[in-house]
Amino acid sequence: MPEIRNYTLNFGPQHPAAHGVLRLVLEMDGEVVVRADPHIGLLHRATEKLAESKPYNQSIGYMDRLDYVSMMCNEHGYVMAIENLMNISVPERAQYIRVMFDEVTRILNHLLWLGAHALDVGAMTMFLYAFREREDLMDVYEAVSGARLHATYYRPGGVARDLPDSMPKYKKSKWHNQREVNKLNENREGSMLDFLQDFTNRFPGYVDEYETLLTDNRIWKQRTVDIGIVSPERAKALGFTGPMIRGSGIAWDLRKKQPYEVYDRMTFDIPIGTNGDCYDRYLVRIQEMRESNRIIKQCINWLRENEGPVIVENQKIAPPKREGMKADMESLIHHFKLFTEGFCLPEGEAYAAIEHPKGEFGCYLISDGANKPYRLKIRAPGFVHISSLNEMVQGHMLADVVAILGTQDIVFGEVDR
Amino acid sequence: MNVQELSQALANIFPAQLQANDVMQNDVYGEVTIEVLPENVLSVFEALRDDEKLKFELLIDICGVDYSEYGSVEWATGSATSTGFSRGVEPATGARLRFGDDKESTVSGRPRFASVYHLMSVVHNHRLRVRVYCEDDVLPVVPSVINLWPVANWFEREAFDLFGIIYEGHPDLRRILTDYGFVGHPFRKDFPLIGHVEMKYDEEQKRVVYQPVSIEPRVLVPRVIRDDGRFDEVDGAEQEKSDA
After folding, report:
1. Rounded to whole angstroms, how far apart are CA atoms B28 and B37?
2. Contact A370/B176, CB-based, under 8 Å?
3. Which residue, among B68, B144, B141, B142, has the nearest Cα to B107 in the 3D structure?
4. Which end of chain A is more exposed for a tag (fewer CB within 10 A), N or C?
């Protein structure tokens, strides 16, 4: 009789369920995974080293490209580290705008996660539903920053500009006649806030649709219930944060526990799981979308009633106004210095962490007093979560590897940095 | 527990391992840093994790740091007016782009490499930063904390890959982010930004080959430290504190 041995299976880097460029070396015993060895770094761009060679204000765009489905949250962590080190406070209106866009980003991220996760497990429809709503939110991104994905909207000391009074509109084309275009533009006639408010009114209904498709779906439950169980003790030992630790039943959320910006004025709840399996993490993220929707509504109400500056007045950090620059020598000099040299931070170090859609995203900044960071370390939640993959998939079937990869919400932009 | 209480508790729990000046507390950003000698690492970390008043059960991050060019600049601004302006185009620091021009460390009296740990407690809701300097600059070694926090596994591999810091006791210290067969530790300050080699497809050999980099290096924005007080109004509170 021939000897039966474990065999090795290469999964990725060109596999649609690998969520980008993951090469996973699996040691299999039949169809059961004995050991998983993820090889990462295929998307390594040395963001941290690049940031060391640029003035502080030129690296914000790199942050968008870390976790490229939750762009503004990455920027938030970075500018907050700079603000902590400079000890400047952000105008109130900018804080509300940041909180609002953090939550818009959270919904964007969770929608992509939901679509991709369900697609991996076999539910194609979810992907189409999720992208229908992502389209609206990306239009909001576009209205405020000019870019649908890589916004570079947050700046040290505030945000780049105030909320716009109009939304981008559809135009008549050979695919859409005027009547169709008018219908598409129906909720785009007002300001950006009007459009977003319309979205927040519609969104809970959409989430109900997702839940109708999945929550009680027999196949979905067979694929996710009791798969990849992590106990609360292990979740802490493995360094989990965000929905991963909440799925295991620990009510830990930086927005509540170490509130930044104006999260302490917001009313929202932290959903937690009970079993710590893939299904619980799914429920946690679904509920988080509803909570984010609540926060966005509160921000919209405040932003409608309160005007004010959206970035600090200090021209050593924030660029001067355009008109001022044309007429005023001082403003011109400030503008020139800011864009050729940047600004210097005081010597010291700071760690700023935010509740990113995937977990704790932190920026550790060491400054020696220069106009460039001496060292910038990005603490990416995905990096920590995927390092636990070996432990989570052991003893599971090959098909469950895909479900567990999906539940970890991996994006390689931030894992490889 | 606030910052003062935490630093007081740390001083009480580790009277022997930490001298008074090792506990640095920063009220401005509400962060506490301690520095630990490599030989005390494991005992201190175990106490940090298990002590009832501290309970740092979550290791948030491990970050390697190369301090060899701390405080060096590319643009002389102090005495520039009497001799004409410094052009600031000579690559001299971390952004140095040419390879082969190794230079002396600008920081004397402090070890070159450090491993920085960020800890957090879910129970008490506080954070701590721990810095461990590696005593040997040529062969930097730190004990591994993988037995205390399993999450340290990949963080230590990353710091080894990028900085060449050896974590003693790590069972599987492989490269993690760089390419298979990569040579060198790219985040060290003496590693040029553009790297040493570039890759291309060779038509004659019909395969991918590596060759020395061919791009022209240049400095776009020189690194400069402004200590003429122009940012005082920005960080006024900070300035007063360091004066006091």
Report:
1. 26
2. no
3. B68
4. N
ipTM entry = 0.86
User: What 3-state class would DSSP assign to B32?
Assistant: strand
Which residues in A lie closer than 8 A to residue B158 (C-beta atoms)? Answer: 383
Cross-chain residue pair A374–B70, CB shorter than 8 Å: yes
Q: Which residue has the tokens 């003893």?
A: A395
The identity of residue B241, as a single letter, is K
Chain A residue nearest residue B107, CA to CA: A368
DSSP state of A147: -
What does DSSP say about strands A23-29 and B23-26: parallel, antiparallel, or unpaired? Answer: unpaired
Q: Which amino acid is at B163?
A: F
Distance in Å from the first CA to the final CA of chain A: 49
Read off the DSSP letter of residue B145: -
pLDDT tens per residue across span A340-382: 888 888 888 889 999 999 999 999 999 988 889 999 999 999 9
A249: left (phi over 0), alpha (psi -120 to 50) or beta: left
Put simply, whether A334 touches B (Cβ < 8 Å) is: no
Residues in chain B, overall count: 244
Q: Is any Cβ of chain B less than 8 angstroms from the Cβ of A355?
A: no
What six digits make up the tokens of A226? Answer: 């009791």
Neighbouring C-alpha atoms within 13 Å toward the C-beta of A83: 25
Instruction: Point out which residues pair with A24 in neighbouring strands.
Output: A11, A38
Least CB–CB distance from B235: residue in A52, A87, A374? A87
d(CA B136, CA B141): 7
> What is the rounded average pLDDT of the residues A326-333?
90
Distance CA B101, CA B78 (A): 25
Rounded CA-CA distance A362/A381 in Å is 9
pTM score, whole prediction: 0.87
Q: What are the backbone dihedrals phi and psi of residue B26, each rounded to the nearest 5 degrees, phi first?
A: -125, 105
